[in-house]
Design goal:
Helix content of chain A: over 70%
Largest sheet of chain B: 8 strands, mixed
CATH architecture of the largest domain in chain B: 3-Layer(aba) Sandwich
Shape of chain A: flat
Helix content of chain B: 25-40%
Structural class of chain A: mainly alpha
Radius of gyration of chain B: 21 Å
Number of strands of chain A: 0
Strand content of chain B: 15-25%
Largest interface: A-B, 33 and 39 residues
CATH topology of the largest domain in chain B: Rossmann fold
Number of helices of chain A: 14
Strand order of the largest sheet of chain B: 6-7-8-3-9-10-12-11
CATH class of one domain in chain A: Mainly Alpha
Number of strands of chain B: 12
CATH architecture of one domain in chain A: Orthogonal Bundle
Oligomer: heterodimer
CATH superfamily of the largest domain in chain B: P-loop containing nucleotide triphosphate hydrolases
Shape of chain B: globular
Strand content of chain A: under 5%
Distance between the termini of chain A: 34 Å
CATH topology of one domain in chain A: MetI-like fold
Chain lengths: 337, 347
């Protein structure tokens, strides 16, 4: 029996089909973006009202800062009036929201610095640390994960598992102190604190990288081992490909899907400031700013930081979602199908 | 005569035993399997689910999991597949022996487009440039009736029947001498089923290749194959020319299978398929057999030639058939050309 060639058969639908598919990626991104906006709206609510749940009267705090220890009631009341704190809470929220939309996060009640300016000033240091930490963790985790998934040598695999377990169990602050002791106090290779050069970056980035890499390595290993059991890996072998092609081309991209999700979550978390590590190494990032503001009861600064961190977190999870769709076509077309 | 017979032999399987070590015990998936496939021949392997057909197909290309133990000989064009190195094995897979694995929906990488999965075969094995390989992939898709503009789409966007056809393209891409097709029509509508089988048969015949068709569908096997082996509980219970096996089955299991076809009365084969860890004593089919003799539960029958080139493993047929050739009934480890002349090469 002869079959007509598919190219000779008219299929008016197919061009249209492809257009819809091309749109679907944008539709997917738009959909995610809408979700992010909803989350951010929620975050503004929480970060605004959380300050009212905290003990203490904001007006009193501000007055304390302005007039010193011996206050009288009229001074507090005048501050309350001047700062608009006497209006109903929901009204204050909308005014705050209005300022927010104009990118005005207010001023620090301690230093009177512009909150947004202050945060943006600290952002580069945080980004620097985040990217370096994430890179180090992936550089350690991916090779170890891939190796231990394929190592027929059980001893080596167990060693990897052992060190991963240690890595998971060691708290950040202890690892940081350990590294300071080894590399600055004993070997005098890297400075123990400060910001500015690559050698300043090394220890905090290592601390972050090492502690994140242990989980990522385990995840890579588990995911890769699972993928290697799939039928399409067998099918790739049946096509006569060598193990190198099978693993790198057919298995790794699939196996990295959960790793990308995890790394993305880490990214969001780190962008919010690796609070402990930044504090240990006096790293002038957002995490340290947040901690300092909390200690100083600088609530407008805390409010601004929390909001900023939440927005960064949402955006980085948006980035992960998009990356996920790029890696896995099934997600991209879900909306269309 | 013996020389001409030997020259046309493509693959011979001799006393193949495949077993898996599991926590419940040793699963004997294939026991003492011997058969051969000639050049240009379509050979059918039929049997119910779980009888070891798929294991046999994968064993031929050494694609079984690590806990499998393979014994015996699989000789492909004079080379024993089981003693080849992994590198030699790779040059065999795809190029000399292609395989269509069962269930095409899970045999494609979900994150690579269908076109690139075909093209990579040409790039890897024939060193084609990316553009040429993609062009070739388009041609191959058109050959099985799929619009080549769909080559940038992903496996999950294709229907089952289309994936089956793509699978065929992948298996036949390098024009292998032998195609192992494992349930190529599983889960397909009857009309598509025939269409796909016709395309496969056409492509195989065009290259004068051989095919091992593994199926539980007797209808399919009847229409396409030259010779058929019937498998039950890890053993071959009957083997012969398809026409004679169908018209005059010597094993009660084959008989029951035939009568389970709609046009033959839709009778079901009673009972359950046996465990491969603890197979029944004596004849493995005896608990389900309607022609049971007293000895059936005690004596494990051997594969005997009933008529020319038609073998069965059954005490009942043995008793009722006058011209069963009793000696010699087991193939020696290395078949001598003499064996071929007496016609005992299958057992």
């Amino acid at each position: 029996m002869e079959y007509p060639k598919a190219s000779e058969v008219k299929r008016p639908i197919s061009e249209n089909d492809r257009n819809i598919r091309r749109i679907s990626m944008w539709k997917y991104i738009a959909n995610r973006l809408a979700m992010v906006l909803i989350v951010i709206a929620g975050v503004t609510l929480v970060s605004f009202f959380a300050m009212y749940l905290a003990p203490g009267d904001p007006a009193e705090l501000i007055a304390l800062e302005r007039y010193g220890q011996d206050l009288d009631k009229s001074q507090i009341e005048s501050v309350r009036e001047a700062e608009g704190l006497d209006a109903p809470v929901y009204f204050q929220y909308f005014i705050w929201l209005d300022h927010l939309l104009h990118l005005d996060l207010g001023r620090s009640i301690i230093t009177s610095d512009d909150v947004l300016e202050e945060i943006l000033l600290k952002l580069p240091a945080t980004i620097e640390l985040t990217v370096a930490g994430l890179l180090i963790s992936l550089l350690i985790a991916l090779p170890i994960g891939v190796l231990s998934a394929f190592q027929k040598n059980i001893l080596l695999d167990n060693c990897c598992a052992f060190f991963s377990l240690i890595g998971i169990s060691i708290p950040n602050f202890w690892l940081g102190i350990l590294l300071i002791w080894l590399f600055s106090l004993t070997l005098h290779i890297f400075p123990s604190y400060g910001y500015g050069s690559l050698s300043h970056l090394t220890l905090p980035a290592l601390t972050l990288g090492i502690s994140m890499s242990s989980i990522t390595a385990r995840l890579t290993r588990a995911s890769l081992m699972e993928v290697m059991e799939k039928e399409y890996i067998l099918a790739a072998r049946a096509r006569g490909f060598d193990e190198y092609t099978v693993v790198l081309r057919h298995a790794l991209k699939n196996a990295l899907l959960p790793v990308v999700t995890f790394a993305g979550m880490q990214l969001g978390y780190l962008l919010g400031g690796a609070v402990i590590v930044e504090t240990i190494f006096s790293w002038p990032g957002i995490g340290k700013l947040l901690v300092d503001s909390i200690f100083a009861r600088d609530f407008s600064m805390v409010q601004g930081c929390v909001l900023f961190i939440a927005v960064l977190f949402s955006l980085s999870s948006l980035a992960v979602d998009i990356l996920y769709a790029v890696l896995d076509p099934r997600i991209r077309y879900d909306m269309y199908d | 005569m013996s020389i001409s017979f030997l020259s046309t032999q493509l693959l011979s399987v001799e006393n193949l035993n495949v077993s898996f070590k599991t926590s419940k015990g040793l699963v004997k998936a294939n026991e003492n399997i011997s058969f051969e496939i000639k050049e240009g021949e379509i050979f059918g392997l039929i049997g119910e689910t779980g009888c070891g057909k798929t294991t046999l197909g994968k064993a031929l290309l050494r694609l079984l999991s690590n806990n499998a133990r393979i014994e015996g000989r699989i000789v492909y064009r004079g080379k024993n597949i089981l003693s080849l190195s992994e590198k030699e094995m790779r040059s065999l897979r795809g190029k000399e022996i292609g395989i269509m694995l069962q269930d095409s929906s899970i045999c494609f990488n979900p994150v690579l487009s269908v076109g690139s999965q075909i093209a990579e075969i040409y790039r890897y094995h024939e060193g084609m440039k990316k553009k040429d390989a993609e062009k070739k992939a388009s041609e191959m898709l058109e050959l099985v009736g799929i619009d080549s503009s769909r080559k940038s789409e992903y496996p999950h966007q294709f229907s089952g029947g289309m994936l089956q056809r793509v699978m065929m393209v992948v298996a036949l891409a390098l024009k292998p001498r032998l195609l192992i097709a494992d349930e190529p029509t599983k889960g397909l509508d009857p009309d598509i089923k025939l269409q796909i089988l016709e395309i496969i048969a056409k492509l195989v015949k065009k290259e004068n290749s051989s095919m091992l068709l593994i199926t539980h569908d007797l209808d399919v096997s009847t229409k396409l194959t030259d010779r058929t082996a019937v498998m039950y509980a890890g053993e071959i219970v009957e083997i012969g020319k398809t026409a004679t096996v169908i018209s005059d089955p010597k094993h009660p299991y084959t008989f029951a299978l035939l009568h389970s076809l709609p046009e033959k009365g839709l009778m079901n084969v009673s009972g359950q398929s046996p465990s491969l860890i603890f197979p029944p004593s004596g004849c493995r089919y005896h608990p389900r057999c309607s022609n049971q003799l007293v000895d059936c539960s005690k004596i494990h029958p051997t594969l005997l030639e009933h008529v020319d080139d038609h073998f069965a493993r059954c005490l009942f047929s043995e008793k009722n058939s006058k011209n069963v050739k009793r000696e010699p009934h087991l193939i020696p480890d290395t078949p001598s050309p003499g064996c071929a002349e007496v016609g005992i090469r299958h057992c």
